Amino acid sequence: MTLHVWIMALGDKTKPDTPAYAEDTHPRRARACVEVDDFADLFPIFNAWRQHFAEEITAYAMPVLLAAEGQPAPGWEEEWAETGPPIRLDTMPGGFLQIRPDGDVPARGRPPFGRPRAAPAADPLALGTQC
After folding, report:
1. For 108-130, what is each residue's pLDDT tens digit?
2. Three-state secondary structure of the chain
3. Rounded to an integer, what distance in angstroms lies between the CA atom of residue 50 and that of residue 103?
4. What CA–CA distance (Å, rounded) separates 81 from 26?
5. pLDDT digits (tens, 9 = 90+) for 25-52
6. What's the rounded Cα separation, in Å, for the pair 31 and 25?
7. pLDDT at 119
8. What band does 131 get if pLDDT is binned at 50, 70 and 90?
9. Nearest to 131 by CA among 118, 54, 122
10. Sign of the CA dihedral running 99, 57, 75, 108
């Protein structure tokens, strides 16, 4: 079983004229970052950040493999910088939280980004089919 942790960093809202824009600041340079054992553990921390920093915040999160000594495996910092964190968490009006893949910006990194996806290996099962 592969063990991993989640790293979350507070994004920077650097364009006041575009409220939905937030930069995915690297955890080493972010105003706040955290490492947790489970994705669910991010929510109370996000809520605390919202109360401390501002009502409307954006954070980015990424699963990171653990090394044998229990620390994040080497290479996670380069992966964050190259491909970016896959999950974006945003506050919404009314106090709601929106969680989504960070698809607002073009994918970064090396191929296969920009290539069409391969066809599925098998035909999908028809509705009503039992396995």
Report:
1. 444 444 455 555 555 555 555 45
2. CCCEEEEEEECECCCCCCCCCCECCCCCCCCCEEEECCHHHHHHHHHHHHHHHCCCCEEEEEEEEECCCCCECCCHHHHHHHHCCCEEEEECCCCCEEEEECCCCCCCCCCCCCCCCCCCCCCCCCCCCCC
3. 22
4. 7
5. 899 999 999 999 999 999 999 999 999 9
6. 9
7. 53
8. very low
9. 122
10. positive
Selection from 57, 74, 63, 45 nearest residue 101 by Cα? 63
Amino acid at 127: L
The whole-angstrom separation of Cα 24 and Cα 59 is 7
Are the C-beta atoms of residues 14 and 25 closer than 8 Å to each other?
A: no
Positive or negative, the CA dihedral 61, 53, 47, 89 is negative
